[in-house]
Amino acid sequence: MVLQGIAKGLYHRKLTIISLIILGVIMLSGALAPVLAPNDPTLISLENKFLSPSIQFPFGTDHLGRCILSRLMYGAITSLGSALVVMSVTITISIIMGTLSGYMGGRVDAFLMRLCDMILAFPNLVLTLVIVGMLGPSLINVIIAMVVVQWVWYARIIRGMVLSLKERSFVLSAKVTGTPDWLIIVRHILPNIIPHIVVLATLNLGMVILHISGLSFLGLGVQPPTPEWGAMLNDAKQFLRSDPRLIMFPGTMILLVVISFNLLGDALRDAIEFRES
Amino acid sequence: MERFIVNRIISLVPVLLGISLLTFILIQLVPVDPAEVYLRLSQIPPTDEAVAVTRAELGLDKPLYQQYFDWLRKVVQLDFGLSFVTKEPVMEELLYYFPATLKLTAASLVIVLLISIPLGVFSALYKDTAFDQMCRIFAFIGASMPSFWLGFVLVYILSLKLDLLPVYGRGTLAHLVLPATTLALGSAAVYTRLLRTSMLENLNQNFVLYAKARGLKERLIVVRYVLKNALIPVVIAFGMTLGHMLAGSVIVENVFAWPGVGRYIVSSIFNRDYPVIQAYVLFMAVNFVLLNLIVDIICGLLDPRIRLGGDR
Fold this sequence. Notes:
The structure holds 2 protein chains of 2 kinds. By secondary structure, chain A is mainly α. Chain A is built from 11 helices and no strands. The longest helix of chain A has 37 residues, at 68-104. Chain B is built from 14 helices and no strands. Chain B has helices spanning 2-10, 12-27, 34-41, 48-57, 64-76, 90-125, 130-144, 147-161, 173-203, 206-213, 218-256, 261-271, 274-302, 304-311. The two termini of chain B are 12 Å apart.
């Protein structure tokens, strides 16, 4: 039912369809990169550096003679994949914490909420940056830092939802009939929360991608020679004058993906609000 | 009003304590022994004996809670210890780099206002026209644009191709334009939409209808009645944004080689200069909290409802 309503809402928007197609193509080309990519993305050959687009190198080569198209395709796995990992871990943790906090109340709730207050008192980019700084630059540490900073935000929202659901008559009647707590949570509370969280997560995926590639751009995330869009921009920045092409490709990819996720998130939100009103 | 401000300041105490606690916990995340890093950076071979001496020197051999209180006592006196790399007091170094960051942030703030107020107001007044649609597209792209890429695109077009603005360096106003615009665009996009929504809500209020019935000029109504009210949510969001802009300047500073805290912190991260990292996060968080305090007070001044609500 829920999914049907959402699907209907999505169908009527051309832009949503376009963004879905863009995301689909990018994800697919990332997933199939080992088969489809024309060249090895990490193969350095200095005699091929700064080549213009050709049949062998459709987008040309970078300062180390590596194929830009292949790097973009493999980069899609790193950029999108790590964003999806961050989001799914964040959501899982925040659903557990938020439900626990809202449903149990009392000391657990007080403790978790004070923890959230503490983390939310920091600007989130600063905290992410510093956690990465403490743990040391690497993609896995960026993922850890992003999860640590972001879960509180969702946990807060989920807790609020659980608090209001707890008082609804269908939950109360389940309680009166002696349904165990875990079953109430699984059957009555989670199904009402998850659609909203999916929307929030989609709306925020764009931001997560921006942060991950931003940190990689600073050299704190993905380490060379692994291809990633932010890291590619970092490599390319010294050649802005001589070869602006190197800047344009990865930047356009990031922009496209972020816009697509934002459009998709907007559409999902409208669809859900429409269903509820 | 005084009571509102005093209450607000008192409520800061637990927040600041929480911030200090989390900052202290962060340094415990370090996977290596800070004493060893300190020795390596000082080019002293980290023998067991030297490590033990340094640990005692840095107070790392004491129990954790005591380390926290020792550290907190120093922090309250603005003593963050010495940088592992330069051996200078960290606070002095932060304050040396901070003005550049502040200047950049202030300039972007001006740009945010210059872009978002006219776009927000006019897209609300001319709702659903082509102008409104264009603002919508601008807001959408602006919010999705990676600032590190936007910076390069602006440099390429405005400096390298058209030769209008200098690329790197600082000093004159012209040097400030590109980095500040890069930093501003994302927030400008968000505020344009926020102000538009808030304007539309206020335009439908009875006091606007009444003002119209009294025959007041359209422009007067918009500026004095609608905009003044519509700006309140925008001002509230400003506190948050300023904090995020101070943080976001990390990326912009690294694009433009701007000599602010952002560049300082990234190089400190690569050097594993832990006292600097720790001081930075505390410094930024306190700035963030104080900015929010100032914004709250301004909102209290603008809107008695907030002030009185806070008095309860």
